[in-house]
Amino acid sequence: LTLLLAATLPASAQTLPPRTSGNPLFPGWYADPEAAIFSKQYWIYPTYSAPFDQQVYLDAFSSPDLITWTKHPHILDTARVKWAHRAMWAPAIVAKGGKYYLFFGANDYHPEKPNEPAGGIGVAVADNPAGPFKDYLGKPLVGTIENGAQPIDQFVFKDGDGKYYLIYGGWQHCNIARLKDDFTGFVPMADGTVFKSITPQGYVEGPLLFRRQGKYYFMWSEGGWTGPDYSVAYAVSDSPFGPFKRMGKILAQDPKVGTGAGHHSVIQVPGTDKWYIVYHRHPLGDQDGNHRVVCIEEMHFDAKGLIEPVKLTTT
Ligand code: FUB
């Protein structure tokens, strides 16, 4: 998830930290990292990368400096969400009104599997970024297929006018829908529709949207999520509803460092034009599609506002 960060960091953190803990950021198999800054700390909310039936909880990680990380285990657990049983995926987090809202996918929703429980995108809430989070709605926020999009890989975007949007979708389709202010549902668009397709060319999953210098940057992952060619591309528009013009791929495997680099989020260091991309990748020689680890790199824009290709590092 991209955060245009409202939190205030101490003066010492107002510039890009000179280094990070190196890659991977912390031990363990994790994917789909959502990065945020809360309470003067960097936070990462990843998917626990394991077989679907074992993905029954989410952990979080916090750091004051991107070097030292503290693990917060089981911030959300399927035991606290009656409709969620497995495949808890790709958290997205928003702080609003003193609460923390964690949007998550569960059950790998698939209408062609009628014997499996329905699922989709849910919302959990807590008073603290470390949780414990509890189910907010008692049912999925999105539990249907709209415009062909599987209800997974949610991202929450706050526009400059204070409106919140849910952007999500697997199966190569991406939707945007305006969230109600209390995140209990959606506000229809002017034409009466709730879900608008904004699928850019090449899109597979893992969408993300942020604004920089008046332009909307749409980023996503493409390729197969367990394979070496998983990667990140982006498009640009003057509107959050597109149309988005594909600009190209900016993150991909480096056969000398790691493969399958994708499903990322972005951090803008508050008060600066300094950015990080936080993503997962497979270690070299990996034989298990679930062996995904969370990494971080600097992300730079050129003078025209184009995102420069990101270099995979180990330090
Ligand atoms: O981690 C589970 C799934 O794998 C995510 O929802 C996809 O984006 C892919 O990263």
Report on the structure:
Pfam families: Glyco_hydro_43. It is built from no helices and 21 strands. With 315 residues, it is mainly β. The chain starts with a strand and ends in a 16-residue tail after the last strand. The structure holds beta-L-arabinofuranose (FUB).
What order do the helices and strands come in, and which of them pair?
Elements: E1 2-3, E2 30-38, E3 41-48, E4 57-63, E5 70-77, E6 89-96, E7 99-106, E8 120-126, E9 134-135, E10 155-158, E11 164-168, E12 175-179, E13 186-187, E14 196-197, E15 205-212, E16 215-222, E17 231-237, E18 245-251, E19 258-268, E20 275-283, E21 293-299
Parallel strand pairs: 1-19
Antiparallel strand pairs: 2-3, 3-4, 4-5, 6-7, 7-8, 8-9, 10-11, 11-12, 12-13, 12-14, 15-16, 16-17, 17-18, 19-20, 20-21
Bound molecules: beta-L-arabinofuranose.
InterPro entries: Glyco_hydro_43, Glyco_hydro_beta-prop_sf, Glycosyl_Hydrlase_43_Enz
Protein name: Family 43 glycosylhydrolase
Family: Belongs to the glycosyl hydrolase 43 family.
